[in-house]
Amino acid sequence: MLDQNSTSREIRENKPKIAILGIGAIEQHGRHLRIATDWSQVRAISQAVAQELDARELDALLLPAIPYSMSECHGLMPGVVYLKPQTLSEVVMDIARSVRELGIPLMLILNGHGGNFILEPTIEKLNREYPDFQIIMPPEVWAPAEGGEAIFESFGAGIHAEEMETSMQLYLAPEYVGDEQVDVIPEVGREFLDYTVMKKISPDGIWGLPKLGKAEKGEKAILSSAKSIVAFVQKAQEVLR
Ligand SMILES: [Zn+2]
User: Fold this and answer.
1) pLDDT at 171
2) CA atoms within 13 A on the CB side of 203
């Protein structure tokens, strides 16, 4: 697998067929999870996907994941560092153009943060601009089931610092998971994050049931998500050939 530890020469000689770009976020995750939660998760899944693709001889170049994205919906809660939608769009466009100039025909974007609505139109624009280059992004990065069996008890009820994220952090970096876990299910839908800030909906900044988090669920989610993303890449290659 090629990544930021590879040399320029190694990249030239190995001619990667796909570049992988994860997009994280730096934002509050309640009292119990670190601000780098989304970034750490998207790095883990991007690495798992790159390894799976390598095993299938689709040599991948794993790019460093972007730490920041559209976290403005968290308002002024400490630890929130965000990009404006247009900035994120420009960053993704510049990275995509660089990848294309390297001669890599395909770029996979893995979006590790829920609110990045600017990505779809950005990808559409790039795909129309460069017919010799393809960008794809699975609509969902996280698979809630493994072999048809649900991994999480509260999937769908939570969106932030909840059972799934707490499980993944317990698996990836338990030393950073705190004990002060508060279960919160707001009375409104996630569209309210377009109308106001997280703090007004959930003062602790949690949306879901973190107390149900378990490391084994996090491990399963990462492995089964990697498998379903690889299946998505293969399907896209068949259809877009
Ligand atoms: Zn998160």
Assistant:
1) 98
2) 0
CA of 2 to the centre of ligand 1 (A): 27
8-240 CATH: 3.40.50.10310
What is the C-alpha separation between 144 and 154, in angstroms, rounded?
10
DSSP states of 152-195: -TTBTTB-BSSHHHHHHHHHH-GGG--S----B--SS-GGGGGT
pLDDT of residue 147: 86
Distance (Å) from CA 9 to ligand 1 centroid: 36
User: How many whole angstroms from 166 Cα to the centroid of ligand 1?
Assistant: 9
Domain parsing of the chain, residue ranges: 8-240
Whole-number Å distance, alpha carbon 29 to ligand 1 midpoint, is 6
Taking Cα atoms as reference points, which of 65, 116, 51 lies closest to residue 95?
Answer: 65
Going from the first residue of the chain to its last (241 residues), give the mean pLDDT of each consecutive group of 10, the final group possibly shorter.
96 96 98 98 98 90 98 93 98 98 97 96 98 96 90 93 98 97 95 95 96 97 96 95 83
